[in-house]
Amino acid sequence: MTHGFLPAAARLGLDVTLLTDRAEAHEFDGPVVECDVSDYREIVARIDGEPAAVLSNSDFLQAPAALAAAYFGLPSKDWRAATRAKNKALMRRHLASMDPVFSADAGRVPPDAPYPLVVKPREGVASEDVFLVRDALELATRVKEIAARRNDPLVAEEYLPGRLHTLETLGDGRELRVLGSFSTTLSPPPFFVEERLEWTAPPPETPQVLRQLEALGIGFGACHTEFVVHEGRARIIEVNYRLIGDHCDFLLADLLGIPLFEQILRVHLGESLPGWTIPQPRHAVAEPVIADRSGTLTAAPGPLQMEDGHVRLSYRPQRTVGDTVAVTRTNRDYLGTVRAIGPGQEEINAALTRFRAAHNWTIT
Fold first, then answer.
1. How far apart are CA 34 and CA 180, in angstroms?
2. Quick one: pLDDT at residue 246?
3. Residue 124 above 70 pLDDT?
C-alpha cells in the first residue's frame, strides 16, 4: 500500500482516506480512520460522503471491502467469490464437480484419507502453519502443535503433486486478462516456503485454471492464483483474490512496463481495461533472502537499485536492522526480496550471486 497503491492514487489525483485497525503501522500523510475493517458495517459507517471506490489488497479484507463497495453502488468483486477464495474449504466444495480434491476438517479426517495430506489453516496466508503429513499420527501431532499457537479452523487436503505455478490476472468485470505466470520453487517438505519465483510463459494447461476461476466467480480486479501442473492436468492450490505479494507486485509492474497499480485503481473506479499491448518480457526472478536462524537482525542492506551489466536489480527489505527474527519455516522468514530483470536466466543467476556476495545479512 505504502509504495504501490498510495503513490498510484496520488498520481491519479485521488483523495484517499485510509481505514485501518493498525494506524501506527502506516506511513500516510492523509486522513487515517481507525475502525474494525473486518466488518463491512463498520467500513460503511466510517466512510464520510460518497466514495468513488473502495479497495483493499489484504487477503482477509476482500469480502468486507466488496460488501462496502456494493453498499455504495460501486464496482466491486462479488463478495461471495471473495469469500470462496479466502475459505479453502468453501473453495474445494465449490469446485468439487470440476476438480474433486479430498478436503476435510483437520480434526475429523476419516481413516481411509488419501495420505499424504497437507494440513493448513482454513483461511491462512504466507505458508504459515502449513505442513505435509504422511499418516494419521503425523496429522494429530501437527494439529496439536498448531493449536498451541492459534485457534482458527484447520483443514487437511489431499497433496497435489506437480510443478507449482502462479497465474496473475486482472479483470474489469467483463474481461479477465492474463498478465503472466511465475514458476515457484519451494523448500523441502514438510514445509512450503517459497524460495524463488521465476517468470515463465503460462503453461499450456492455463485454460483449465481460467475455467475454474470463472466457476468461482473471479473476474474483477487483481487475482493471484497458485496451481500445480501434473500429467497435463492443472489443479488449483489456492486463490488469493488480490495482487501478488512479497514484492513480486513491483517486479510484475517493472517487467510488464505498465502502470499496474494505477490500472487496478482505475478498474475499481469503473473503467474498462485499456487496449495496451504487453511487451515481450525479458527474464525475471524474485528471490527472497531467508532467515536461517532466530535472533536480532544486526546488519542488512536498505532499499537498493542497481545495474549489473544488462541485469537490473532491486532490493527491498522486509525486516530492518534491530528487528527480532524468529524462524518459522514460512514466508514470514523473509528478510528482504531481490528482484532481477535481464535478458536471460544465466545472466540473472550470475547477477544474483554477485549481489548476495556483496551484501551482508547478520542475525545475532
1. 36
2. 86
3. yes
